[in-house]
Amino acid sequence: MDQKGERFSEATRTLVINRQGARITLKRAVCVGAVLQISTMGGRRSGKFRIVGPTQPPTGEGGEWGIECQEARINIWGIGFPPPAPGDGACAALLECRRCHEIKLCQLSMIEHEVLEKTGLLVKECEICGRSTSWSFKEPSVALASDDGSTTLPPDVTLSAKTLASQRRTHNRVALQLPIRLRGFYGSEEFTRTENVSRTGLCFITDRNYEVGEVILVTCPYEKNGHNIEMRGHVVRRREMQGTGRKIYGVSYER
After folding, report:
1. What are phi and psi of 155, to 5 degrees?
2. Residue 51 and residue 65: Cα distance in Å, rounded?
3. For 201-239, how does the pLDDT look when each residue is reduced to its tens digit (9 = 90+)?
4. Does pTM surpass 0.90?
5. What is the 3-state secondary structure (H, E, C) of 16-66?
């Protein structure tokens, strides 16, 4: 089933395969957590695979997705993978639910780890919320300038005076409105303006929702017919602007 709830069948190909699953391309937009019935064209083997998440932002030609086999004993690829060593093919990460802020050490498959590394988010069941929510790495956020330029957002962690002074010296922020384009791995695209910028990141205001920890692709500045350079950035701060329905976000570029 695609995102519209319609059944579909599509001939496509794998990009990477392993014992647990694969990366595949799809022209249809699909939902994270949906189950695909995948059949090989040659050996006529089939199995059920869960969509873990995107591994590339979608384009006009479709998207790239990480999928995980739901039946551990089935190998539809016709390839004899070496037997897994104890603990092989899995990892553990300290994650935080972005809805209730529950922190949990989660066991992840390598497919889940790849999606988390690519997008910054992973959809998992939360026992506290009672449903599937977005999870990201638990890590301290960096204080960024607020929308009015006169104060700073309340920091999640307490930084020493020496650290703050060092940040001010090396990462000065300038109140500057530049046109930007933001692209997400889950199909979002937005054109807006910065509120302030620095060498390591920027702030912007929008009524759209982004999660702390989410990876977005930023073009700053953006020119419609110009030579644009796209950079990966992490959403490190989010604050509601009371009475407006809008949010101010801070983005830090990947080094």
Report:
1. -75, 150
2. 7
3. 999 999 999 999 999 999 999 998 888 999 999 999 999
4. no
5. EECCCEEEEEECCCCCCCCEEEEECCCCCCEEEEEEEEEEEEEECCEEEEE
